[in-house]
Amino acid sequence: NGRDTTLAVGAGLQKMGMDHARMIASPKTRTQQTAQLLAGHAVV
Description:
Layout: H1 2-15, H2 29-39
């Protein structure tokens, strides 16, 4: 499903050393939820 895929992409980004990269996301709820899954924490 989409959630599992997003978590896998986030894990891949961490393995590539991009876990502290700047992320820009729309303030829309669904986009924020996806960004938070990718980052592994709340996105401000």
